Amino acid sequence: MTELLSNYVSGQWQNGQGAGTALHDPVLGTALVRVDASGLDLAAAFAFARHHGGAALRALTYAQRAAMLGAAAKVLQANRDAYYEISTANSGTVKNDTAVDVDGGIYTLGTYAKMGESMGDVHFMHDGEPARLAKDPLFQSQHVLTPTRGVALFINAFNFPAWGLWEKAAPALLSGVPVIVKPATTTAWLTQRMVKDVVDAGIFPAGAISVICGSSAGLMDQLDPFDVVSFTGSADTAAIIRSHPAVTKKSVRVNIEADSVNSALLMPGEALGSEAIDLLAKEVAREMTVKSGQKCTAIRRVLVPEAMYETVAQAISARLAKTTVGNPRNETVRMGAVVNREQFNAVRDGLTYLKAQAAVLHDGSTHALVDADAAVACCVGPTLLGTCNAAGSDAADRVHDTEVFGPVATLVPYRSTGNGDLAHALQLIRRGQGSLVASVYGSDPAELARAIPELTDSHGRVHVISPDVAAMHTGHGNVMPQSLHGGPGRAGGGEELGGLRALNFYHRRAAIQASTAVLTQLK
């Protein structure tokens, strides 16, 4: 029987009391390890984290906690090879895709360690300048941010077991708030191993970080008014979390990252042979194939002038045709598997649903699998669909409403009147009802700048790619710790990262009304 992974709660490693759920290799189909959280004393686990872990973290300054993050990053870097092996086996990812998750997580942790160094040896943050409350400046109001005296519960998605852990945990721990991580069961192995390595290194005080692998049943029931919960996953699960009594009655603070039908926009006026068109095609193909399209930030809709539809379709299809699909252990393979059979079937069903309103421009089924049995491996070839013309783009409501979480994107032409109808393109993009990210491709800085404000109200991030940044832009789907991650509307309304802005979620704001003499003593 495979190894049963332990949970780390109440300052000790504990096994669940059940047989456990097996995690599988999505390419070979073999069982890897088991996870189980049944029988854990969740009330005791939350209390220990809240009171022991929280008190110990709050006793430290921001700079001291930043040093701990830096030490944790070094431990993770030393064990990087093991994480790559786990990711290949459990997530079916090729090395480049594993790097996005593993190296991205370590980079984010290290970035917050550096940010925290500059915050100094203080225990709370000033929020703005003092405001005079009377004619005489003697009596003033100073807003401050202090760490919440609660625990941060993270319910994470399956697609980023490494980065998803650290992009939430880094700002929380820097804030002085203990974290309890519930990774998605399917890929929990990597999360558990990373937490184990950090715990074994003795970097953080007991209770500062906990991990629960298995069912999430009962976790929300443990939350108290000053706790916070951050969730990444489906809109349906997000609705359940938002309706839980901990949120509706105790006002537990919630951050949600949910479904997102992200867009890439080619600006009007780009001529045949334009570098912007090549940049668009390159980025779309990359976003479709990195992690087999299993990224919440991946491009799902590609908006182009109607007159450029065939040109762009051919450019993207030519790049996709070169993508080898199969066993990530084979050095010639460039795209591995989706995470399990359930996701494999979901992608297939989603494709069938979209094909009712869109034509197939590049057929993923034409990709023969390399070193993989098609009857076992959860591999799906990259598929590009298209709505053919501007009228079809208006009529294809499924394209704007449905996120197929795999290597699938749809080319959506907008009206070409003269240099193109940008207003029509923006109207189509907004039918996504709020997204994590939109990327814009063009050559004219003034026109690009004109389009940006039309996108920022409905997107958490706008990534603008022009020829002058072709060699240095960070990518449509790459989430950088310096920039906001989240999005309004159907994307969940959440906000993560964005530099030190991420710390706001883990702090409480209060106004102190006092004499200037008192305020100057605040440290």
Question: Please, could you describe this protein's structure?
Answer:
The chain has 523 residues and is an alpha/beta fold. The protein has two domains: 3-258 and 496-519, Aldehyde Dehydrogenase, Chain A, domain 1; 262-480, 3-Layer(aba) Sandwich (Aldehyde Dehydrogenase, Chain A, domain 2), CATH 3.40.309. 35% of the residues lie in helices and 22% in strands. It has 17 helices and 25 strands. The strands form seven sheets. It has a seven-stranded mixed β-sheet with strand order 17-19-20-15-14-21-22, sandwiched between helices. A five-stranded parallel β-sheet has the order 11-10-9-12-13, with helices on both faces. α2 runs antiparallel to α4. The longest helix has 23 residues, at 95-117.
Concise summary:
With 523 residues, the chain is α/β, with parallel strands linked by helices.
Q: Determine Rg (CA atoms, Å).
A: 24 Å
Name of the CATH first level of the largest domain: Alpha Beta
User: How many domain regions?
Assistant: 2
Q: What fraction of the residues are assigned to beta strands by DSSP?
A: 15-25%
Output the CATH homologous superfamily of the largest domain. Answer: Aldehyde Dehydrogenase, Chain A, domain 1
CATH arch. level architecture of the largest domain: 3-Layer(aba) Sandwich
In CATH terms, what is the fold-level topology of the largest domain?
A: Aldehyde Dehydrogenase, Chain A, domain 1
Helicity, as a percent range: 25-40%
User: Stretches where pLDDT falls below 50 for ≥5 residues?
Assistant: none
Average residue-wise pLDDT = 96
Shape by Cα distribution: globular
Gap between N and C termini, in Å? 56 Å
Walk across the major sheet and give the strand order.
Answer: 17-19-20-15-14-21-22
The helix-and-strand class reads: alpha/beta
Number of DSSP helical runs? 17
Largest beta sheet, briefly? 7 strands, mixed
Total E-strand runs: 25
